[in-house]
Specification:
Two copies of one chain form a homodimer. By secondary structure, chain A is α/β, with parallel strands linked by helices. The first copy, chain A, has 13 helices and 18 strands. In chain A, strand 6 and strand 7 form a beta hairpin.
Chain lengths: 423, 423
Amino acid sequence: MHIEVICTGDEVLTGKIVNTNFSYITQKLEDVGLAVQWETTVGDDRENLLRAFQLAGERADAVIVNGGLGPTVDDLSQEIAAKAAGVELELNEDWLKRMEDFFQRRSRVMPPNNRKQAMLPTTSEVIDNPIGTACGFAVDIGRARFYFTPGVPRELRRMLEEQIVPRLLAKAGLPGAIFLKRFHSYGLGESHVDSLLAGVEDLVPDGSVKLGFRAHYPQLETKLTVRGRDLDDARGKLAPAEKEVRKRLGNFILAEDEQTLEGVVLAELTKRGATLAIAETFTSGQIAARIGPLPGAETILRRGVLARDLRDVWSSVGLPGAPPAGELTKETAEAVAQAARRATGASHALAVLIEVDEGPDRIEFGGSVCLAIAGPDRVASRRSRIVGGREWVRLGAVELGLDCLRRYLQALPVDERTDFEKR
Amino acid sequence: MHIEVICTGDEVLTGKIVNTNFSYITQKLEDVGLAVQWETTVGDDRENLLRAFQLAGERADAVIVNGGLGPTVDDLSQEIAAKAAGVELELNEDWLKRMEDFFQRRSRVMPPNNRKQAMLPTTSEVIDNPIGTACGFAVDIGRARFYFTPGVPRELRRMLEEQIVPRLLAKAGLPGAIFLKRFHSYGLGESHVDSLLAGVEDLVPDGSVKLGFRAHYPQLETKLTVRGRDLDDARGKLAPAEKEVRKRLGNFILAEDEQTLEGVVLAELTKRGATLAIAETFTSGQIAARIGPLPGAETILRRGVLARDLRDVWSSVGLPGAPPAGELTKETAEAVAQAARRATGASHALAVLIEVDEGPDRIEFGGSVCLAIAGPDRVASRRSRIVGGREWVRLGAVELGLDCLRRYLQALPVDERTDFEKR
């Protein structure tokens, strides 16, 4: 099935906003096994919109149009859709009523120009938007079925997932239910994971499971997509493959699906009524900055300290004298973590200390990371060397610190070898 | 002049990467007074590429193609360009030599598949890429001039600015020189600045100056674009308007052109051989995280402390007892800043303390910010109330803290009223 996407709006065309709606749409379709062939962006311009609709209508089987459903004069999607389909616009009384209710529930009167949002091509099928006033609709133009969606990201997302993806799957003649399982890991490269998971797809004999990856350093996302008659069927088919991935990636799986590493860490701390102190060098406090903004973190994250050099960290956690001279060691990190616990009264402390190379930034630039986690009854630590330039070292150290804290809290070893370090 | 952009590559089409190259290109053209009419994204697919080139060649005067100039088999731009132009590919000996030198200077031997990058349509004009092996080129397809650019962002940027924009301006028959002046401000809303700057365009009587804005909370960018015979002419024309903007926005201008707020702060500190300590609540250390990663910051940013509540900040900077009970005050922030200086030995300290509202996040959610800056000979402080939801308060407080530090270092008042606060 040939699928196209048309993005509309001057703000996108002039680059005032980066087109993340498109990458969202195409990724979402990929996740269910559909591929976008062609994307077009045009502005709020009648002639270009009409031409774009006509061209896509000649090439495609299905077209998703994003934007232009708002109440203002530069929102032209319904008007041009009707023209391209060769039909009139007519008022959809049901949607008008929905909008009036929408405003009434918010104790407001609907402005007259919102009426425009209920004007749809006569041949349209309404596509529900449960959270906004922009009415989605589908209509045939040329040989393609066009699906019109709102530009507001959360409205687009809901409409695409709940309404449009099922229609596209039905149109493509694919079984109705797709289930997507995602695993997030840190420390294993994409090709390493690919070879570790060799044969996993074959565990589901009908070939309906597909394995895929999305790398965003330092994390890797491993995706399993499965097709079934319905959701229970899809989940059931996936079970052996899912179990095998969990077994083979083991301790490296730091989160699943919508979870994040920092969210998992915070949940583990919350579960045991713990509090946290963090001491960082070189990372500019980016470990604390990952945890701090999460809902609920204000009662957990007790204190963070960042400093440019070790002596400052040493004194800031109340340690007497100076840190040991010579190469940075795990023992020094342990001392800092334990002192940070004492100084702040937190139940747990994470110390991530980094000694970076001398000289200008370059691809061979590296740093030695010594980190330690102190809790009520034990201390764990590790040493690691990361290379790849200053920013790479910084990103890697932040992830390593958070992941080791996750491992500590889940009673897993904190010193498993990763693909990103030199020893 | 009708301009189009064609973005190529499976990674962009499948959403694996968000298409920031497109927003960069279109913004850059906007800045010099040119408008993109139409954008197309296609994958690494011969048929779709050819069709996209042909369609754009029918509609446009100029087309910028991004991507597909690499050495691998899925890089198809030269091949399809030749086909669409109805000419052959031929080896460009000059570029081959350039590439061989490029590898030799890096003590490497050029892999054989890089040779492909020097194969250009016979009718091409070479467009220089001084920092990479992908050769840019221009060729006519249909009625349009096509400009082929590399997908690597820094190579694209350099080629677009130095090579392609001047060619487009010449093609459009516009005076050769465009000068863009940008002012970054914090604390004034877009409509407020728009009214403050009424009449500024008229200071240049020939109408060649254009005023524009780009808002990205909490900062606002004010842009003046001017056209002239050459750069000196353009700059000369701009002078009275530029002077007037600087006068009217006054202390609110925090940086100009490529400068950033954190960069200006760091430069001011560096200039006087100063060092800095930062104490933050609620911001998760985001003030330190803005300054810390900048080149040179490691010798300036001596220590950062973040804490969930005031008592932790109080004790972490070595203050005895507990902070004053009751409402957060400027005096408390002053005490923390002064103590942070003493405790860390830094010449300057910034304390940003925030008391946020109770209850769930909502648009009326607000926070009271008390901040203070202590230096060798004086202390400055201010109190401010920001509303707009938790994240809005956080972003606003970070910007306010950094901007007050900038004002302090530039001997400007730190307590000028902003549009973003309630009093």
